[in-house]
């Protein structure tokens, strides 16, 4: 009896796949591709940096390592969450703000880390290539940031609230309705 009542109205949601996919409320196809590019470029920069065997001044190398590793891991996590239905189970309701700030901050950190590492390294080929991939990753993050702004706008600019009147009577309407109260035109 219960199956007869609920079977016709209960339908699975075909638009909510669990697996990775570019179609999401928070991640469209171009940004999905940019996120994958960011993950790959960050990984290559990190791996190249890890192959550096000696350093005279290791602080820039360690900062570049931190930024590239952090960018790789957290961008992969963000990509996984935003391209699956898991983002709804995490308990964060402001995903556009998180994605906006994260993308901007990683772009800035990649810019700083790449400049510092380019200025203070041992001038080996591996270090030079790591710096190039750091700059490429920074460009990918900036492109993602620009596409985010064009598609979704600034997430911190909400709808403007109407001005408060502090209990004052609002002014009468300037435009009269067509016809009078008795229905005559």
Q: Your description of this structure?
A:
- Keywords: Membrane, Transmembrane, Transmembrane helix.
- It is found in: Membrane.
- This is CKLF like MARVEL transmembrane domain containing 6.
- This protein is mainly alpha-helical.
- The chain has a domain of 122 residues.
- The protein is built from five helices and no strands.
- The chain is elongated, with a radius of gyration of 26 Å.
Q: What is this structure, in a nutshell?
A:
The protein has 185 residues and is mostly helical. The protein has helices at residues 2-7, 29-50, 58-82, 95-119, 125-152. The longest helix has 28 residues, at 125-152.
Compile the SSE list and pairings.
Layout: H1 2-7, H2 29-50, H3 58-82, H4 95-119, H5 125-152
Helix pairs in contact: 2-3, 2-5, 3-4, 4-5
- Report the order of strands and helices: HHHHH
Count of helical regions: 5
Low-confidence stretches: none
Fraction of residues in helix: 55-70%
What integer value in Å does the Rg equal? 26 Å
Structural category is: mainly alpha
Mean pLDDT: 81
End-to-end separation:
57 Å
The largest sheet, given as strand count, sense and whether it forms a barrel, is: none
- The beta-strand count equals 0
Report the portion of residues in β strands: under 5%
What overall form do the CA principal axes indicate?
Answer: elongated
Pfam families: MARVEL
Main location: membrane
Protein name: CKLF like MARVEL transmembrane domain containing 6
GO cellular component, one term: membrane
């Amino acid at each position: 009896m219960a199956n007869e009542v609920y079977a016709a109205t209960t339908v699975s949601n075909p638009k909510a796949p669990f697996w990775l996919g570019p179609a999401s409320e928070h991640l469209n196809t171009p940004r999905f591709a940019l996120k994958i590019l960011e993950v790959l470029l960050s990984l290559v920069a990190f791996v190249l940096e890890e192959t550096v065997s000696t350093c005279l001044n290791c602080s820039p190398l360690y900062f570049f390592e931190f930024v590239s590793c952090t960018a790789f891991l957290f961008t992969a996590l963000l990509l996984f969450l935003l391209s699956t239905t898991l983002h709804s189970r995490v308990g964060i309701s402001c995903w556009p703000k998180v994605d906006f700030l994260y993308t901007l901050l990683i772009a800035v950190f990649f810019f700083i880390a790449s400049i510092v590492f380019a200025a203070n390294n041992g001038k080996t080929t591996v270090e030079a290539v790591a710096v190039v991939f750091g700059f490429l990753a920074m460009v990918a993050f900036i492109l993602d940031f620009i596409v985010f702004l064009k598609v979704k706008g600034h997430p911190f600019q909400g709808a403007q609230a109407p001005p408060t009147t502090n209990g004052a009577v609002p002014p009468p309407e300037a435009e009269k309705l067509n016809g009078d109260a008795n229905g005559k035109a």
